[in-house]
Amino acid sequence: MISVTDNFDLNAAGMRGVTICNTPGVNAFAVAEHTLTLMLAVGRKIVALDAEMRKNKWPRELLTQMLGKTLGVFGMGAIGARVAALGKAIGMNVLGWSATGDPARIRAAGATPATKEEILSRADVISLNVRLTPETRGFIGRKELAQMKPTAILINTGRGALVEKDALIAALSERRIMGAGLDVFHQEPLAPDDPILALPDVILSPHNAGQTAEVIRDGLLRAVENVEHFLQGKPRDVVVAPVR
Predict the structure, then answer these.
(1) What is the pLDDT of residues 126-135, one digit of tens each?
(2) What's the confidence (pLDDT) of residue 9?
(3) Domains and CATH numbers, the chain
(4) Catalytic member of 159, 175, 176, 217
(5) Separation between Cα atoms, residue 25 and residue 191, nearest integer Å
(6) Contact 117, 126 (CB under 8 A)
(7) Residue 117: in which H helix or E strand, if any?
(8) Which of 23, 81, 211, 223 is the most exposed place for a label (fewest CB within 10 A)?
C-alpha cells in the first residue's frame, strides 16, 4: 500500500485479488504552496534577477503583478481547490475547470466555472492539477498553447505528460507564452541535454512539490490507518478493489 499508483497495472491488480489504496489529499497544501511559489517566481523573475545580481549587476525591468490577474485552474480536487484559494488570497480572479463537470464543486472552491477554451484564452496564469489519464495525456498541446495569451504563465505540478513536450519547448523558445514553472517532466530525472534546461523564463524544480516533513508525517499516518481499516475488512481510499 503506497500513495502513488501511477506505476501499477491497476487492472491486473484487481484481477489478481490485490487491493490498492492511496493517501489522497495529504500533499494538497504543500503542492498548492509550491504552485504559488512557481507562479510568483516566474512572474517576478526571481531566479534571473538573483543570478544577475550575483554578477554585480543591478537589473531593473518590469515584473508581473498578480493582483487583478486571472488564474485558471484545471482540476478542482484537493490540490486545485487549494490553488484556487491561494490565488484568491492574493487578489486574483479564479476560473476553474473540473473533469467531472461539476460546477458546484468549482464554486465551493471559490472559483468561477469555465470551459477549457475560456480558461486558455482568458487566464494570465494556468495551473495544471488534473490526474494523468488516457484522456488528459497531452491535455495542453500546440492548439492549446496557441490559444493562450503571449503574457501567460503555465504552471505544471501535476504530471509531465499532461503537456506535449515539443509543443511547450517551441512555445517558450518562440516566446509565444511568457514563461513556465515546472515541477514534473516527461523524463525524470532530466537528461543533461534536455532542451528545457536552456530556456529562459522557466523555473524548474525536481518533482518535489510535496516533499515536506508534514506531508511525510501525514502520509505515513494515513497509510497505517488504511492498513488497519483493510485488516478490519473496511478498506478506505481504495483505488482498485479485487474483482469478484
Answers:
(1) 999 999 999 9
(2) 87
(3) 10-23+213-240 (no CATH), 28-55+63-204 (3.40.50.720)
(4) 159
(5) 30
(6) no
(7) helix 116-122
(8) 211
Write down the mean pLDDT value for the chain.
94
Q: Which of 67, 161, 123 is nearest to 115 (CA)?
A: 123
What's the length of the chain? Answer: 244
Per-residue pLDDT of 172-221, as tens digits, reads 999 999 999 999 999 999 999 999 999 989 999 999 999 999 999 999 99
Active site residue: 105, 142, 207, 229, which one?
207
Q: What is the 3-state secondary structure (H, E, C) of 174-220?
A: CCCCCEEEECCCCCCCCCCCCHHHHCCCEEECCCCCCCCHHHHHHHH
Contact criterion met (CB below 8 Å) for 94 and 87: yes
> Which strands sit side by side in the sheet containing 112-113, from one edge to the other?
112-113, 93-97, 70-74, 125-128, 153-156, 179-182, 202-204
Q: Name the one residue in this structure whose C-alpha cell is 473533469.
A: 99
Number of neighbouring beta carbons within 10 Å of residue 47: 14
Q: Is 34 among the catalytic positions?
A: no
Would you state the pLDDT for residue 10?
A: 84
Kindly report the pTM of this predicted structure.
Answer: 0.92
Any catalytic annotation for residue 186?
A: no
The answer to whether the beta carbons of residues 127 and 83 sit under 8 Å apart is yes
Catalytic residue status for 188: yes
